[in-house]
């Protein structure tokens, strides 16, 4: 694979080394499908552009930035990309096997599992906000929601690993409405607070039993109100100890405060969720980095695909990315 001089050859994947599988979604400019690269199951996002040459510099810069966050275990990794075909970019992501938090799986999870997932997602978002190093500053997600929190299960335990997806590229992808106001980290914190409250309540809106009107109220409004009234249990959907509930609900309600300056940073959210998990009887583990197959490891000097992880005794890691 010859060098291009743009500093992205370590991420550039030859088209003939990508195996395409079942199409998961297709909508005009974007096709999402399963695939395989380096003997590893992957998700492929194929974008078709009319003006690729115009946006190419910005797109490649975004690819480089997003790829630098791939070592964190709670972020879906961008493994590489292919730009060999005219007006088309293929982004290659790791595959996450167990769906997302918005699926039917949430109703089958224990309170400890839910707290572990929320903590993992918070750690991933905190890493996004903080940045990798001095050369790669933090970025704003801009679209935190259930469907962008993916779940990876461990066959040897009951734990689920949360992986935040859907970050990067929103400014330059077609078909996405661009807000005049630049997204801020405080907006991410608010959205994550809504996720925490929806996990707690099992719904996005609930009836206020103290009101006569039969009208459902967003949990971001109702839960803070019930906390002040010492009626928090009226809104809780999961089986959670009082001490863990108080800690969890307090930080979630801080996240959804109307004044953005009053909202906590994600590092504080992580700290409080660790406390809540411990109070619930869960084990708080320190996250480690993950092994990511590189393009250099996957393509040898003769452009033949090799297995970067020596096939890990024949077992590939199952992972999936969402839109």
General description of the model:
The chain is α+β, with helices and mostly antiparallel strands and 323 residues long. The protein has helices at 52-67, 111-130, 185-201, 219-228, 242-255, 266-279, 295-298, and strands spanning 19-27, 30-37, 40-48, 78-82, 88-94, 131-133, 136-137, 149-153, 160-164, 205-207, 216-218. The strands form 4 sheets. Strands 1-2-3-5-4 form a 5-stranded antiparallel beta sheet, covered by helices on one side. The protein has a two-stranded antiparallel sheet with strand order 6-7. The longest helix is centred in the middle third of the chain and has 20 residues, at 111-130. It is elongated, with a radius of gyration of 21 Å. Residues 299-323 have low confidence and may be disordered.
How would you spell out the order of helices and strands? EEEHEEHEEEEHEEHHHH
* Contiguous helical run count: 7
Give the number of domains: 2
Largest sheet: 5 strands, antiparallel
CATH topology of the largest domain: Transferase(Phosphotransferase), domain 1
Parts with pLDDT < 50 across at least 5 consecutive residues: 299-323
Radius of gyration: 21 Å
- State the end-to-end CA separation: 29 Å
> Which CATH top level class of the largest domain fits?
Mainly Alpha
Number of strands: 11
Question: Taking strands numbered 1, 2, ... along the chain, how are they ordered across the largest sheet?
Answer: 1-2-3-5-4
State the secondary-structure class.
Answer: alpha+beta
Mean pLDDT: 84
> Which architecture of the largest domain would the CATH scheme give at its second level?
Orthogonal Bundle
Beta content comes to 15-25%
Assembly type: single chain
Determine the fraction of residues in helical runs and give it as a percent range.
Answer: 25-40%
């Amino acid at each position: 694979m010859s060098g291009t001089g743009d500093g992205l050859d370590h991420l550039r994947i030859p088209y003939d080394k990508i195996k395409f599988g079942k199409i998961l979604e297709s909508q005009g400019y974007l096709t999402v499908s399963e695939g395989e690269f380096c003997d590893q199951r992957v998700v492929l996002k194929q974008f078709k552009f009319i003006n690729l040459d115009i946006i190419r510099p910005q797109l490649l810069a975004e690819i480089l930035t997003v790829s630098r966050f791939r070592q964190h275990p709670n972020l879906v990794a961008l493994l590489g990309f292919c730009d060999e075909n005219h007006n088309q970019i293929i982004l290659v992501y790791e595959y996450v096997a167990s769906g997302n938090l918005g699926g039917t799986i949430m109703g089958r999870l224990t309170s400890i599992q839910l707290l572990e997932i929320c903590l993992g997602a918070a750690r991933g978002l905190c890493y996004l906000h903080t940045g990798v190093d001095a050369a790669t500053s933090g970025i704003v997600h801009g679209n935190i929601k259930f469907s962008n929190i993916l779940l990876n299960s461990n066959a040897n335990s009951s734990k689920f690993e949360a992986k935040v997806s859907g970050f990067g590229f929103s400014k330059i992808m077609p078909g996405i409405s661009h807000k005049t106001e630049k997204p801020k980290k405080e907006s991410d914190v608010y959205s994550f607070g809504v996720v925490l409250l929806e996990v707690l309540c099992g719904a996005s809106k609930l009836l206020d039993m103290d009101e006569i009107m039969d009208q459902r109220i967003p949990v971001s409004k109702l839960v803070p109100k019930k906390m002040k009234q010492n009626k928090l249990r009226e809104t809780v959907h999961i089986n959670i100890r009082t001490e863990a509930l108080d800690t969890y609900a307090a930080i979630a309600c801080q996240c959804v405060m109307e004044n953005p300056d009053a909202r906590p940073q994600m590092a504080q959210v992580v700290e409080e969720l660790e406390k809540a998990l411990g109070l619930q009887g869960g084990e708080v583990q320190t996250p480690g980095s993950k092994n990511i197959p590189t393009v250099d490891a996957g393509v040898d000097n003769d452009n033949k695909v090799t297995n970067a992880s020596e096939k890990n005794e024949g077992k590939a890691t199952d992972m999936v990315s969402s839109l």
